[in-house]
Design brief:
The structure holds three protein chains of three kinds. Chain A is 73% helix and 0% strand. By secondary structure, chain A is mainly α. In chain B, helix 5 packs parallel to helix 10, helix 10 crosses helix 11 and helix 11 crosses helix 12. The chains are: A mainly alpha, B mainly alpha, C alpha/beta. Chains in contact: A-B, A-C, B-C.
């Protein structure tokens, strides 16, 4: 057998690969880095530009004053309280609903049922619906229509709950699924019922993951603007909500109002308000990540 | 010692009752999501049907003038569609390549240190509210980028381009993270096999990883389209409220989503034609995004089956 | 009971008592059967996993189930505390009587069964709670509210763990060593005062020192409880058990299904010295499995 006839002459080991091939590799890698640079650059530009613009107005008066027609006196108080009310109620309602649905789907629902697959598909779909559509739903059925709750805190909270619910469900399901089956077996082998096992072993172990999920969905609710546009939250509100039936406004919409105003001085107020909003969101997300990291160490 | 008879104790009977109550309550709770979806469809359906009983479908889908709140009102939805298309295209042209590029880098090249920096940055970007991004588009991107560099025609306060660029930035993290998930699911044995044959990193990316992760990547792209189409606030703030039938992204436009937001602010009286247009356009928007979402879920399911 | 010699563990601290090879005394033929299995079988879907096991398991004895991998020992043992009920698609065939009552009777609640028949798993599975709470959990779910502290102490003493942990019961159970965790799981099972303890290869995840601890513990527990133990380790079965059941795998030539069957069930001394079935002999002499 002539070996040379089988394998073509291979270049000696020290030979470098073709320089064009090497260059294509380098260009490729640079393009990839460029993609990351776009994201980083945009984020930093946004943060720096907003900070520079809004900094002059960052003071206690900003938080204490109510919105006003005069830019020099305009503040955020009603929006801050409105957001607190809305996000608070949304979290309060979405948490038991979301965790309950997650428990049902993970622990009690038969795995092969078509009915259950439909529910799961549904939840995934809801997570992808544009948020403004939830505003339409709220307008048709909740603010007006059968429930007719008007443009109140109650309506806004209900719409946000519906919007945020798929996120809570998905996060809770993952947290419950992460609890090892050996814990469940150990509990059942001691004579516990399924619910006792869930309530006393599975849920406590899943709490960090559920907490992370709910903090993240609360921060999502805090930043929402589109659905609330249709629910009257853009109105000029200079009072804090006093009950579920109050009118209200929220921080993102006040930002929208100030940013869209013809007077350029209001844009500065908008920028300052953005800083406030971003700081709060950053704090919330950092907390969620902290909780998640501590959770990963335990199990 | 426990008694040797197997009859259930009083304690167990009590627990069983509790279990039954819990189980029934939870199954009711599970229905909430189904009820909500039905409600969305129902809320859109009736007013839409009423709308089309008054306005001809032909005019809706073919006329190039959208002026529903004027006198006399005109109901051609095409300007909204082209507006949506413009913003969506710019966004996708930015987000898909950059998102893929970022995903490739994170998945195949990045050191753990770089990952620790870049991933949180992407998460932060994903968490920025759309109103903040809209402000950025209106206040910075339009004057400093679009007005200075867009060659075609005059660029005013609003432009589809500024909105599109910022929507692209908004969906970039989603694209990157979904694509990266798809790439991580590719088994290492494939990478090792290619590298052992003498392939360069780039060749592994384009020749092995990309085809293997294709379904997941396609699903991510479809989802990116869906998100770009449905984005309301950025379009409303940066692209304006003028439903201009144009293909030049330097012009201000109105998208389907931003029209809904715009009309909603205006507090249309229930039952008025203006009110019903919200639902007609909303139905169109919902159907488009719903179909895209189903497509993406289907692709992902086929993708998962390949590896499980 | 058995003659033993004491050696010091060279790593310090623990005394190991190694049983000197002496056949255990023959089991009491008048002992009352706790479980009577009649043609007991398990199917997963269509595939038979265990086929027609008939045997009596008597009170205050240790019965070892031995056999090659895949012969259904774990599946079989899980029939006795109805843990197979939790596996979707699993069907139980035949009959199991517990003190004369049908374990799978229509009025019997599986949860009640598990109160009386405890289980220790192959891999120690302590709850992510404190040592105290691990033991107290079983008491809580079974509605035992009195004297909890005392019961916890008793359970830990019964599992020979009390002296090692009594100074800090609030410590996390996950901080214990593997052997300690397994003894904690045993203590957990003891706390609810079962009648029978099922052990599914309790020592296979442990080092030899910890294993010896578990084996010694079992001998002590036998006086109050009935123990069924699945083990891969023939020497362990020979050392510790009163009765031994040997199972093996039968392969269905047509379908390729692997099913476990009971080959021989006799006092341990008999099985290991004069086995009746050639398959038993082949297994214990190491010619297969």
């Amino acid at each position: 057998m002539n070996l040379e006839a089988i394998s073509p002459a291979a270049p000696p080991l020290g030979h470098k690969i073709a320089s064009s091939r090497l260059w294509r590799d380098r260009i490729f890698r640079s393009i990839l880095l460029l993609s990351i640079a776009v994201a980083l650059l945009t984020l930093f530009t946004l943060l720096i530009d907003t900070f520079l613009e809004g900094r002059p107005r960052l003071n206690g008066a900003l938080l204490e004053n109510m919105p006003s027609g005069r830019p020099a006196r305009a503040g955020l108080q009603s929006a801050i309280f409105g957001s607190l009310w809305l996000v608070g109620i949304t979290s309060l309602v979405s948490l038991p609903l979301g965790v309950g649905t997650a428990i049902f789907l993970e622990e009690y629902a038969p795995k092969n049922s078509r009915y259950i697959r439909l529910i799961e598909l549904n939840i995934q779909n809801m997570a992808g619906v544009p948020s403004v559509v939830f505003g339409i739903l709220g307008l048709a059925f909740i603010a007006r229509g059968p429930l007719s709750w008007g443009f109140t805190v109650r309506t806004g909270a209900m719409v946000l709950t519906i919007l945020v619910l798929p996120l809570v469900i998905i996060a809770s399901r993952e947290a419950i699924r992460a609890v090892p089956p050996s814990i469940r077996d150990g509990s059942l082998a001691l004579g516990a019922t399924q619910w006792q096992t869930i309530w006393r072993q599975v849920l406590p172990a899943a709490v960090p993951g559920i907490a992370t999920g709910s903090i993240l969905s609360a921060s999502r609710a805090l930043g929402e603007s589109a659905p609330l546009l249709l629910l009257g939250a853009l109105s000029f509100v200079t009072f804090n909500p006093t009950s579920l039936d109050s009118g209200y406004t929220v921080l993102p919409l006040l930002i929208f109002k100030y940013a869209s105003d013809a007077k350029a001085e209001f844009h500065v107020v908008a920028a300052a308000a953005i800083i406030v909003l971003l700081v709060v969101l950053l704090a919330m997300n950092a907390t969620a990540i902290l909780v998640r990291n501590r959770f990963q160490k335990r199990l | 010692m426990a008694s040797e008879s197997l009859a259930p104790s009083g304690q167990l009977l009590r627990q069983r009752r509790i279990e039954l109550i819990v189980r029934s309550s939870l199954s009711v709770v599970g229905l909430v999501s189904v009820v909500v979806t039905i409600a969305i469809v129902a809320s859109l359906l009736l007013p839409t049907l009423e709308f089309f009983s008054e306005i001809s479908i032909a005019e809706f889908f073919t006329s190039k003038v959208w002026a529903p709140l004027f006198n006399p009102p005109r109901f051609g939805v095409l300007p909204l569609v082209t507006g949506t298309f413009l913003v969506m295209s710019v966004a996708v042209i930015l987000a898909v390549p950059c998102g893929l590029g970022a995903a490739f880098y994170l998945s195949e090249y990045a050191s753990p240190r770089l990952r620790k920096v870049v991933k949180p940055v992407l998460e932060v970007l994903a968490g920025i509210p759309t109103v903040v991004l809209g402000f950025f588009a209106l206040n910075f991107v339009n004057p400093q980028v679009v007005q200075k560099f867009w060659p075609i025609g005059d660029v005013g306060t609003f432009s589809a381009l500024s909105a599109g660029l910022v929507v692209g930035v908004a969906i970039l993290p989603l694209m990157a993270s979904l694509a990266e998930d798809a790439m991580s699911a590719v088994p290492n044995s494939l990478r090792d096999g290619a590298l052992a044959l003498g392939a360069t990193r780039r060749e592994v990316c384009t020749g092995v990883i990309f085809p293997a992760a294709l379904s997941g990547i396609v699903a991510a792209v479809v989802l990116a389209f869906s998100r770009a189409i449905g984005e309301t606030t950025i379009a409303l703030m940066a692209a304006g409220s003028n439903p201009r039938f144009t293909l030049n992204p330097g012009n201000g436009v109105q998208t389907m989503a931003s029209f809904i937001g715009f009309a909603g602010i205006g507090d249309q009286p229930t039952g008025s034609t203006g009110y019903k247009t919200i639902f007609a356009v909303g139905s169109l928007l919902f159907i488009i995004t719903f179909l895209l979402n189903i497509l993406s879920i289907r692709v992902v399911r086929r993708f998962r089956e390949a590896y499980e | 009971m058995t003659e033993s010699m004491t050696t010091q563990d060279p790593r310090g601290g623990v005394e190991i008592r190694t049983a000197i090879a002496q056949p255990p005394p023959p089991p009491d033929p008048d002992a009352e059967p706790v479980f009577r299995a009649r043609n007991l079988g398990v199917k997963y879907g269509d595939k038979p996993a265990v086929h027609k096991v008939t045997a009596d398991f008597s009170r205050n004895q240790i019965t070892a189930l031995i056999g090659p991998s895949g012969c259904g020992k774990s599946t079989l043992i899980r029939c006795f505390n109805r843990m197979n009920d939790l596996i979707p698609g699993a069907t139980i065939l035949g009959e199991v009587l517990y003190h004369g009552e049908n374990l799978y009777g229509p009025d019997v609640d599986a949860v009640e069964v598990r109160r009386r028949v405890g289980m220790v798993f192959q891999k120690p599975n302590p709850f992510p709670k404190s040592i105290y709470d691990n033991i107290a959990f079983g008491l809580k779910v079974n509605g035992i509210k009195d004297n909890v502290d005392h019961r916890v102490e008793t359970a830990l003493k019964g599992a020979v763990l009390w002296d090692e942990v009594k100074t800090d019961l609030k410590k996390s159970a996950l901080a214990l060593s593997g052997g300690q965790q397994q003894r904690l799981c045993i203590a957990r099972a003891l706390a609810v005062e079962p009648d029978v303890i099922l052990m599914d290869e309790p020592a296979s995840a442990l080092d030899p020192v910890a294993t010896a601890g578990i084996e010694e513990l079992m001998q002590g527990l036998k006086e109050e409880y009935t123990i069924l133990i699945v083990t891969h380790n023939m020497q362990q079965a020979a050392r510790c058990s009163d009765m031994t059941a040997f199972l093996t795998v039968e392969v269905n030539e047509k379908t390729g299904d692997r099913t476990g069957i009971l080959v021989e069930y006799a006092p341990t001394a008999t099985i290991f010295t004069v086995p009746k079935d050639p398959r038993t002999e082949a297994y214990i002499t190491g010619r297969f499995g």
